[in-house]
Amino acid sequence: MVLDALHAGARERLGARLVGLYLYGSLATGDFSAATSDIDFAIATAGELDARDVAALAGLHAELRARGGLFAALEGSYIPVAALRRWDPANARHPHLSHERPFGVEPHGPDWVIQRHVMREWGVAVAGPPARELIDPVTPGELRAAVRATLDGFWAGFGSSDAFLRERPYQVFAVQTMCRALHTLEAGAISSKPAALRWAQSALPAEFQPAIARALAFPGGDQRDDLAGTRALIAFTQRASRS
Question: Residues 55, 127: one domain?
Answer without folding.
Answer: yes
